[in-house]
Amino acid sequence: MTRVLVVEDEPALGRALAITLRAKRYDVDVAHTGAAALDAAATRRPDVVVLDLGLPDLDGLDVLRALRGWSAVPVVVLSARHDSSEKVEALDAGADDYVTKPFAVDELLARLRAAVRRGEAAGPVPDPVVQTARFTVDLPRRRVLLRPPHQDDGEVDAEPGGEQVRLTPTEWQLLAELARSVGRVVGRRELLVALRGPHLGSEAAETHYLRVYVAQLRRKLEADPSAPRHLITEPGVGYRLVP
Ligand code: CA
Questions:
Q1: Fewer CB near the terminus (10 Å): N or C of the chain?
Q2: Is residue 234 within 8 Å of 185, Cβ to Cβ?
Q3: DSSP code of 160?
Q4: pLDDT tens digit string along 125-152?
């Protein structure tokens, strides 16, 4: 069953959408605020999101940007505003499609089906909470927790807990990039573009920059920073986060 998260603060519209979608055999969750939407996206792992841009607590675009920090789930945006700049902004922020209110239900359903198909073609959604034997990277909540000693038993599916590690924004960004590709090598250039944008300096300077931040992360996260077990250098290529 395809799971849809409907983010809509108008109770009547949220209810109507839920009834319509359930009749079409979707499994539906409804969130009325941006905060609830981010929480539901992390815990319920929907296959597709319908996101109203006008929410009481957060701007829908900020919800979308936060979601895109860790999830590639297809998002169809709903907006009451008709200007095309908002549409462009939503698409730039990572929306897959856009429907203007008031909309015909058939149109929304068609766009939803298309978004789900594209999501399926893109493959399974990776887990947004990455656990290693020593620490947990919680991408939705933007935090890293050191596993408490009693959990350090190879049990990787236990409820994440432990002491929160304070990271600088750059350290977090670097760790998040590696966590999104956990187990795989991430190339130096890819990491640098994610951290610094496409206009990079000399290769020597950039390589040094990465090395400095990886060393800082190792000091904070590895039991023995000089013999890392999780933040691994792939010589001449890049880095890999090993669970
Ligand atoms: Ca609204």
A1: N
A2: yes
A3: P
A4: 677 899 999 999 998 888 999 987 654 4
Q: Residue 86 Cα, ligand 1 centroid: separation in angstroms?
A: 15
Tokens of 36: 């609830």
In a 13 Å sphere around the CA of 164, the CA atoms on its Cβ side amount to: 8
Burial class from Cβ neighbours inside 10 Å (0-12, 13-18, 19+) for residue 147 reads buried
- The tally of domains found in the chain comes to 2
Tell me the per-residue pLDDT of 88-103, one tens digit each, with 9 for 90 and over: 889 888 999 999 988 8
Taking the centre of ligand 1 as the mean of its atom positions, its distance from the CA of residue 124, in whole angstroms, is 30
Does residue 86 sit in the same domain as residue 142? Answer: no
CA 110 – ligand 1 centroid, Å: 21
- Report d(CA 119, CA 178) in Å as an integer: 22
pTM recorded for the entire structure: 0.71
Burial (CB < 10 A; 0-12, 13-18, 19+), residue 230, is buried
Question: Looking at the structure, do residues 68 and 133 belong to the same domain, yes or no?
Answer: no
Determine what percent of the chain is predicted with pLDDT higher than 90: 65
- Ligand 1 geometric centre to CA of 126 (Å): 29
What end-to-end distance do the CA atoms of the chain give, in Å?
Answer: 31
